[in-house]
Amino acid sequence: MPRYIFVTGGVVSSLGKGVSAASLGALLQSRGYSVHVRKFDPYLNVDPGTMSPLQHGEVYVTNDGFETDLDLGYYERFLGVKLSRNDSVSGGRIYWDVLNAERRGDYLGATVQMIPHVTNKIKEYIGRPTDTDFVICEIGGTVGDIEGTIFLESIRQFANDIGRKNVMFVHLTLAPYLEQSGELKTKPTQMSVRRLLENGIQADMLFVRSPRMLTNDERAKIGMFCNLPATNVITSMDVDNIYKIPLVYEEQKVFDIMAMHFGLPAIAGDMSKIKRIEKYLTDDLPICTIGVVGKYFDVPDAYKSLNEALFHAGIQNNVHVKVKKINAENFNPDDCADVDGILVPGGFGSRGVDGKIAAAGFARTHNIPFMGICLGMQVAVIDFMRNVVGIADADSTEFSKNCTPVINIMSNCDTGDMGGTLRLGAYPCDIKSGTLAERVYGAKQISERHRHRYEVDIKYKDEMEKHGMIISGLSPDGKLPEMVEIPSHKFFIAGQFHPEFQSNPFTGHPMFNAFVAAAANK
User: Fold this and answer.
1) What is the per-residue pLDDT for 301?
2) CA 122 to CA 467: how far, in whole Å?
3) 350 plus 243 within the same structural domain
4) Of these residues, 138, 153, 398, 500, which one is catalytic?
5) Residue 500 a catalytic site member
6) Which pLDDT value is given to residue 180?
7) Which of the residues 450, 452, 498, 509 is marked catalytic?
8) 137 shares its domain with 233
9) CATH number for 431
10) Under 8 Å CB-to-CB from 106, ≥6 apart: which residues?
């Protein structure tokens, strides 16, 4: 049976529970333990698929085609694990399952209640079998949220069910610094832990978010009021890059605390992979500027995986990547005067699409390295069909009903829970020999994750290729274009998929690595 670590948060949201959970996993992996991670979000949406990036950040997609919370991206990038639909569970999904079970008669006429029916369903997801040594479960929201109370009750019960010695509770709080008085205040942490205790959970270790390291006196004070040893009060210090956090925890002997709790040998870990990133961050390297032409810049996490993938590619190419945010809604070619490469990411809806089409055209005509992702591939095709092939009204039926539909909904798309057609999750792609795509991937077949409704219409293939844009990647049945490129261009490639979901800081992703390399050479 695996051991379980539950990560909860208090005081305020967005303290970094996801990164902290991933960092705990990294410390365990550095000692040779295998790790699985799960995220439980109390909100009532059935999944994040219908949530706006402007409110919730990006929607992350797993290999098996589930739309999940963006924290699963932290887990996969940090830990190199492949997660599934059972690893991102919302309150809405729990209630949906319970109510459907009641309608089917699964409860045999019993009165359906929060306890035991809802808590049992939550515990069922927590305890889904894995072949790992540890399962780390992050509980979203903050202690005291009405929606989250039932999740806290569930993990309390779960600890009793499998034995308290097999469970560790880690609580993340905030210690605000009052500049006027020069004081670091511990009272919010004390109150948060007290609120957790009201739910029957005693924290075994505290991560206290702070702008500086806690003093020994501050740790002792927090430990005394929060009923745990001062050694188990850890400073979750502000850092300039999330990949430094495992090293911050390593310096404070977080693994030793876990080892003592679970009865593990206190052995040294191999942190060389993380230290390589730390060295990269401080190295004096050339700067490569990538213009990202998007429309969700009001929320920093809206392009989280994309920004991470560019950062990872910078590590592999020994350059520091600077992302220049270019608003697609008021695109001006002058915005691209100082960029080394142009990237058009995915998105939904017509807002800003004209700017994205113009950006693809600018990169094409000015021989600037270009990469298109999902909608970014579609706008590249629209620009090419309008301005090279000569079909003036070429467009997508997503944006116009009165057009030559070079982009259209394909009838063989999967049906998503939203009621529309979506291709979700990993699909194979056959790569054409002798193409840039083959050189980038070094393979004839790849698998990438999708999240879209519309496809480039294969019937325009001959016309495109006659004028110089080739379809270099196809679905195995030959019906769906997956990649396009322009061989005469310095570097112009686009994919109908989201390669950013499979990038990590240790190897990067082939497509991003090649794009940043081309931009750096420019």
Assistant:
1) 84
2) 56
3) no
4) 500
5) yes
6) 84
7) 498
8) yes
9) 3.40.50.880
10) none
Residues 303, 267: one domain? no
> What Cα–Cα distance (Å) separates residue 370 from each residue in 150, 291, 311, 487, 516?
48, 10, 17, 12, 10
Reported residue count of the chain is: 522
Distance CA 277, CA 204 (A): 30
Residue from 419, 433, 378, 411 nearest 479 by CA: 411
- DSSP assignment string, 360-391: HHHHHHTT--EEEETHHHHHHHHHHIIIII--
Q: Six-digit token pair at 346?
A: 């995915």
- Count of the separate structural domains present in the chain: 2
Q: CA 46, 450, 291 angle in degrees (round to 5)?
A: 110
241 plus 361 within the same structural domain = no
Whether 498 sits among the annotated catalytic residues: the reply is yes
Smallest CA-to-CA distance from 140 within 91, 187, 95, 176 is with 91
- pLDDT exceeding 70 applies to what percent of the chain? 98
Q: What's the domain range around 494?
A: 283-521
Residue for token pair 């690595």: 513
Q: Which of 277, 297, 321 is at the close of a domain?
A: 277
Distances (CA, A) of 363 to 13, 333, 345: 40, 10, 14
C-alpha to C-alpha distance for 377 and 345, rounded to whole angstroms: 9
Instruction: Return the SS3 of 107.
Output: coil
User: Residue 54's pLDDT band (boundaries 50, 70, 90)?
Assistant: low
The predicted model scores a pTM of 0.92
Last residue of a domain, one of 215, 246, 277: 277
pLDDT at 517: 98
Catalytic, out of 226, 374, 413, 429: 374
First to last CA, the chain: 53
